[in-house]
Amino acid sequence: MDLGTLKESCSQYNNPSKVKLTYGTAGFRAEASLLPSTVYRCGLLMALRALKTGGVTGLVVTASHNPVEDNGVKLVDPTGYMLDQAWEAWANKLAAADDEDGTCAVVQELFQVEDIPYGSSTVMLAHDTRPSADALVKAAAAGVAAMGSLPIACGQLTTPQLHWMVRQCNAGLKHKEKAYYEALATGYARLVSGHPAPSEGLIVDCANGVGAAKLQVLADRLAPGLSAELRNTGAEGLNDCCGADFLQKERRLPAGFQDVPEGARCASLDGDADRLVYFQRRGAADEVHLFDGDRIAVLAALLVMDLLRSLITAEQPPPTVGIVQTAYANGASTAYIEEKLKCEVRVTPTGVKHLHAAAEEFDVGIYFEANGHGTVLFSAALVQRLHELGDDSGPAKALLALVDMVNQAVGDALSGVLLVEAALRRKKWGLPEWAALYTDLPSRQLKVKVADRSVVTTSHAETRVESPSGLQQLIDSAVAAAPSGRAFVRPSGTEDVVRVYAEAATQSAADDLARLVARHVHSIAAGVGLSP
Ligand code: G16
After folding, report:
1. Which of 409, 435, 461 is the last residue of a domain?
2. Final residue of a domain: which of 108, 124, 156?
3. Which residue, among 189, 426, 392, has the nearest Cα to 302 in the 3D structure?
4. Residue whose CB lies within 8 A of the most ligand 1 atoms, among 371, 445, 456, for a mutation test
5. 152 and 7: one domain?
6. Residues 509, 364 share a domain
7. 494 lines ligand 1 (CB under 6 A)
8. Are strands 57-61 and 122-127 parallel, antiparallel or unpaired?
9. Cα–Cα distance, 283 to 263 (Å, whole number)
10. Considering the domain boundaries, does residue 250 fall inside one?
């Protein structure tokens, strides 16, 4: 690394706004014009991370479910997982540097403290469909190049595609986009072989995001194995009244779905295709029946446990299966998993990085946030055992097909669609059978705008408020007065809001509880504008 060149390059990406962005739930996210210096410095960081680990790293320019005027950056470790949490502090320190001198000082400190060897590394870059992407990818590439490293521009990809490609690349396996479709498609074909397709196709809301084009390639590759009609595939209207986040929060039909028949099987992706929910129109109005991440986790568990049951041999200990959720998980799903599936449930704070780590502790770790972000992880030991059983065992072959089909790096809406479709097909189920497993407790989510969301801090996997003082007591009293009430609040790590979640015996009680808790947040944590 040449310090003079680095300093010159850094001076092109100083932060004139003086807004200090911090690493949130899934990287940095803000209104796009505030981002160039932060994204540039993430380029520096990921080149350093690649040098430190000796592998290829990744960086995706995306703001996922946020509105189109926002953008952001998600950072990928050589494992294909999100950036090691221990390095988030470095990301913040770099992002907060005042100017080129400050940035260079942090880079030098990083070299020293992390004992990073000098040399050249490689960072794979991708982006979603936002108009601000080009300038930000250029900033990221400049950061990588300033470290004397190689930025590889992979173009428009879904976030999970880049995670998958980084993971495969570091494992010395085929890692081009084509290989991704190949792996998913062949896994799916093996899994559903001999199980007839349903007569009705799937209708997918693509949130006008990058998932539209990518799902089309996958569906074409699978034709006629997967019959999918894609909607909200445009260049405009990203996440606007559509997409998985809209469905999960608003519980109503997305734009462009007003004509779907009541029983139709529908799914929705978010803007960078790392979240998936299913839904079905309910009644004549805009109402929907939502099949959220909790329900996808249960379906995945049923599929995996059916296969494991037929696989288990007396002489070996049975593989461990666990489901990881967050406080947002509907109480009815948790009860079903524990009481009916007899499966262990772990609860972590929000954020895939937390759920993923917990899921790795099982032979099969199924993690899904209620918002539809999740996947199924298989331990290396189990995969090896499945290979040993090989061709002699139908269940082992099906499980290996699942390992290929389900993104092992991160939650992936495209592989999620195949997971749900394969599970339903193997069980000869439609949405009614899936819905009948359990009935969700009525719930409501709200957002409260406050002057500074960092004043709200939480503990116990985000179920208790630590500060501001007095807020938890007010929430406790509100919960105690609601029939079967449960509520919590937490600062979002992707939007400038405090989130409120409430559950109760009836929808109106859940709505009232959420509104009351939101009012308490608004009054105690310096709410801005009107309380919801
Ligand atoms: C990201 C994270 C998810 C998280 C979501 C919302 O999703 O990857 O784990 O659930 O943000 O986080 P928060 O409630 O802190 O705003 P995405 O799809 O937006 O990248």
Report:
1. 435
2. 156
3. 426
4. 371
5. yes
6. no
7. yes
8. parallel
9. 10
10. yes
| CA 25 – ligand 1 centroid, Å | 6
- Nearest residue to 292 via CA among 259, 325, 258: 325
- CB atoms < 10 A from the CB of 433, how many? 11
Give the domain CATH number at 470: 3.30.310.50
- 39, 51: one domain: yes
Domain of 36, in residue numbers: 3-156
User: What type of residue is 491?
Assistant: P
Annotated catalytic residue, options 9, 64, 132, 149: 64
Complex ipTM: 0.96
151 is annotated as contributing to ligand binding: no
477 has catalytic annotation:
no
The answer to whether residue 172 is domain-embedded is no
H/E run at residue 307: helix 293-311
Banded pLDDT at 314 (limits 50, 70, 90)? low
Ligand 1 pocket residue status of 325, Cβ below 6 Å: no
Neighbours of 101 (CB within 10 A): 12
Beta strands in 307-369 (DSSP E): 321-325, 344-347, 364-368
The enclosing domain of 416 has a CATH number of 3.40.120
Picking from 358, 368, 364, 386, the residue whose alpha carbon sits closest to that of residue 377 is 364
Helices (H), 75-158: 88-96, 100-113, 133-146
pLDDT tens digits, 455-510: 999 999 999 999 999 999 999 999 999 999 999 999 998 888 999 999 999 999 99
Give residue 6's region: left, alpha or beta (phi > 0; psi -120 to 50): alpha
Does the residue 529 lie in any domain?
A: no
**Average pLDDT for 295-303:** 98
pLDDT tens sequence across 504-527: 999 999 999 999 999 999 999 888
pLDDT tens by residue, 414-440? 999 999 999 999 999 999 999 999 999
- Is 162 within the bounds of a domain? no
Q: Quick one: tokens of 94?
A: 């770099």
In the chain, count of helices (H) and strands (E)? 18, 19
Cβ–Cβ < 8 Å for 371, 248: yes
Residue 179 CA to ligand 1 centre (angstroms): 27
Number of domains within the chain? 4
* CA 352 to ligand 1 center in whole angstroms: 8
Same-domain status, 414 and 451 = no
Determine which residue's CA is closest to atom 17 belonging to ligand 1: 64
Q: Are both 25 and 146 inside the same structural domain?
A: yes
CA–chain centroid gap for 299, Å, is: 18
Residue 223 φ/ψ, nearest 5 degrees: -55, 135
Ligand 1 pocket, residue 64 CB under 6 Å: yes
User: Is 239 marked within a binding site?
Assistant: no
Report the CATH number that the domain containing residue 246 is assigned in CATH.
3.40.120.10
| CA–CA gap between residue 243 and residue 232 (Å, rounded) | 9
Asked if 281 and 372 sit in the same domain, the reply is no
Question: For residues 390 and 397, what is the distance between their CA atoms, to the nearest angstrom?
Answer: 6
With a 6 Å cutoff on the Cβ, whether 352 touches ligand 1 is yes
